[in-house]
Amino acid sequence: MPTLRPNFRGTRHLAAALLAGGALLAPAAAFAETTITAVMHSALRVLDPVITTAHITRDHGYMIYDVLTAVDETFTPRPQMADWTVSEDGLVYTFTLRDGLMFHDGAPVTGEDVVASLTRWGKRDSGGQLIFDVTASLEAPDDKTVVWTLSAPFPPLLNVISKQSAVPPFIMPARVAATSSDETITDYVGSGPFRFVEDAYEPGVSVTYEKFDDYVPRDEPASWMAGGKVVNVDRVVWTTMPDSLTAINALAAGEIDYLEQVQVDLLPILDGAPDVTVEMRDPLGFVTIGRPNFLHPPFDNKKVRQAANLALSQEDVLATMMGSPDYYTVCGAIFGCGTPLGDETGSEPITSGAHPEEAKALLEEAGYDGTPIVLMAPTDVISLTNQPVVAAQALRNAGFNVDMQPMDWQSVVQRRAQQNPPSEGGWNIFFTNWMVPEISDPLINVMVNGRGNEAWFGWPSDPEIETLRAEYVQAADDAARKAVAVKIQAHVMDNVNYIHLGEYKMPQARQNTIQNMIPSPVPVFWAMTKEAD
């Protein structure tokens, strides 16, 4: 181990978290080779992966639930819990569950569970809503079979249900999936490779997962979310360390095994840690965005949204976030630069720097009266702390009255679901990040959903973009899909459904004893091994 000054406060924090998680209830040696201790990008407080798009909740979902189908590293849908056939007319999808599927309470996974899970998911997910628009029936004729019958072809159906994010269709027991899509589940029996240890869970502090011994992985090698989810450790503990320096020192000192996000300007600390590897989890990276609330003034006014877009600069935001241009790219493509649908039409206002005078003129034209805009600013996620600060100053320079309200990220996650006016606990704008794969087409990218109250937080009512998304579904080939995607790009830039702030890559770090990590955009803990020190 490197010679560094011990961070005793971090050690006490870690010990308390592990004790809460049950990891110190037995001698340390008992778990030395089988427990992975990880510091994730955020604390976990919301446990329902359908009710929110928060990445930490999605990550939790992949720990304890499985999915019907999943994309591999080539973005190809593969069987996971089920194989499938499609009728010649493209209207009937028949899924056959594989043998050995079991919930954590010992009950078998049945077609009834799948139907209930897909139905609840379809009420919340952007692409799922479009599929259910053309669903004639979704039935389980027996315990092993699910038949999904459409009233019109939906060629990308398998791509949508196989995606990694934002809301994967996790399979839950039917009794759990019967929970309204507007309410949070309270029963956490899963179908996946790890079991959630509810008694050890301390919201915002520690969460513990144990290997589910009765989980039967597929035979194929693991590839992203597809293939065999073989668990090689007994336990995974996520412990919360909001302070980046504390977390990095804990990793360098061997107190934790894995750090999901490493603050770039602190990377030199790890240069002297020979037992630590710093790496990129995936080559695609992330995008960062600002989302206005369409329900309340002033962002219910298109010209005010356009003024906000003109006020901000991708370069300013990205440079402050990441420090080094080695880790960011100015990019105006809402579906990702370098992706098949990537196009930068209409992005010049946000990619060419800040334009405060033009923004002021638009605000005056819009009749903006100085109404304060409530900007929610998370304080505990290293990839989200700088955007609000840079944006607040840029918006003030353009004439906005900004009320920046600091809070932890999980408070943002809960508050952004509130439709109340800003004066009654609501909000006007917040900033977040997405993996490039989860924004790479109009069915996966939840921010281009224009269904009002059924849309993602911010709730735009945008019939034009819904027409374009339907056109995309029915496009005959890749060229036609790209043409529709360019139209959507131009519309989003003009209407400012959200403020696209460019792309970045965030390094992760691990102890060298941690091996066989899947290079997936989503951090997963199957396949991973922990060698003896």
UniProtKB/TrEMBL annotation:
Signal peptide as annotated in the record = 1-32
Family matches, as SUPFAM superfamilies:
Periplasmic binding protein-like II
| Alphabetized UniProt keyword annotations | Signal
- Coiled-coil zones: none
Domain Solute-binding protein family intervals? 78-437
Q: Where in the cell is it found?
A: Periplasm
Tell me the Pfam families matching this sequence.
Answer: SBP_bac_5
Name the major location.
periplasm
Is Endoplasmic reticulum tagged as a keyword?
no
Belongs to which family? Belongs to the bacterial solute-binding protein 5 family.
PANTHER family named among the record's database cross-references: D,D-DIPEPTIDE-BINDING PERIPLASMIC PROTEIN DDPA-RELATED (PTHR30290:SF38), PERIPLASMIC BINDING COMPONENT OF ABC TRANSPORTER (PTHR30290)
Protein name in UniProt: ABC transporter substrate-binding protein
